């Protein structure tokens, strides 16, 4: 029981995982690492496609729109599939779609059409929608519910490790380091070599995705050959026979979690999508140096996840997230008001504090949903569409105001909503404690 006077919990005395769950936990945690790679390769693709297709920031922002629309449209079918067939079917379906989307990058490059890449990204994201819809509630339910936030933060800590790998792959194998001046472009057009240059830059994106496609297929084989622990099989059975999606809308904390995660996705995806442009505009660095700085933000994100998983065994998750949200509001005010290396450092640091938000909001939203946990998880995953909406909006703000810094007002608003949600959930936790004491 949590002591409300100290905001601490003896949950650290309970085991994080039940006996026999370690293999399943490792395999599913590996998925968090795996999908972190394409999620953050998108940040590299936005910059690369601006160059290789000679398109605007708003048009390049469609990379995130296509990607997160895949999440939005496929999350609910994923939840329905898992309610009927279980988590394993969701994992395998997701990995097969993920692999297929990666392999589509080859014909997309040969066609030379931007729309073909957007289609490939949509298929990749469709697979990831299945994986996220399955993996987050799977980890949350893989043991004591009192430790669901800590367990999910630990598993999610490997997601930014994958994100760092994605950015490093993109920086090394996708960015050529060639940045042409307008005069050089005019000369190449006069010589008839500019089209070949654009094609060469476009083809550079293919190899990392082909490798990812192969890895996804191998991981599907490992998942298919693994027997899940009894605690998961029991909860899958309860979901199959007792779930009723209408009950979800009687849970106010669940509805608030949908809004909070939607606005958080706007903040997270937007912050990273335009970080390279911010670094180039105000830090005056080349694209590869900006890519390495983006890697630094992901490193801060990963460290934050591990630290938060530890702290949550001693501090109320809602209280911790509330502190982090308001710190990010302050940091973004600095990033907007002092565009330059000071602002760049502030925006980089927001990644440490945002790290706690996705898994904590997700786990909090699933509290007390019982047999509706799978369907609730699929609806929460649908809110990731915020990334599809926020990125082009930030691009539009940047173009209209000629300031990438001002576009960060949108993530700032997202953290305000998260801070209010965290305060609400701290009160919700206290109410649950009071009800438990009254029942005892």
Entry summary:
The chain is mainly alpha-helical and 440 residues long. The chain is 80% helix and 0% strand.
Question: What is the topological layout?
Answer:
Blueprint: H1 22-52, H2 57-60, H3 62-85, H4 87-103, H5 105-111, H6 114-141, H7 148-156, H8 158-174, H9 182-191, H10 194-203, H11 206-224, H12 230-242, H13 252-273, H14 275-283, H15 287-311, H16 317-337, H17 341-354, H18 357-365, H19 373-382, H20 386-401, H21 404-407, H22 409-439
Helix pairs in contact: 1-6, 1-8, 1-10, 1-11, 3-4, 3-6, 3-19, 3-20, 4-6, 4-11, 5-6, 6-7, 6-19, 7-15, 7-18, 8-15, 13-18, 13-19, 13-20, 13-22, 14-15, 14-17, 15-17, 16-17, 16-22
Structure description:
The two termini are 12 Å apart. The protein is mainly α. Helix 7 (148-156) runs antiparallel to helix 15 (287-311), helix 14 runs antiparallel to helix 17 and helix 15 (287-311) runs parallel beside helix 17. The protein is 80% helix and 0% strand. It has one domain: MFS general substrate transporter like domains (Growth Hormone, Chain: A, Up-down Bundle).
Keywords:
globular; mainly alpha; Growth Hormone, Chain: A; 440 residues
User: What general form does the structure show?
Assistant: globular
- Assembly context of the chains: single chain
- Given as residue ranges, the uncertain stretches (5+ residues, pLDDT < 50) are 1-12
**How many discrete domains?**
1
Number of helices: 22
In the CATH scheme, the class would be Mainly Alpha
CATH superfamily: MFS general substrate transporter like domains
- Roughly what fraction of the amino acids lie in strands? under 5%
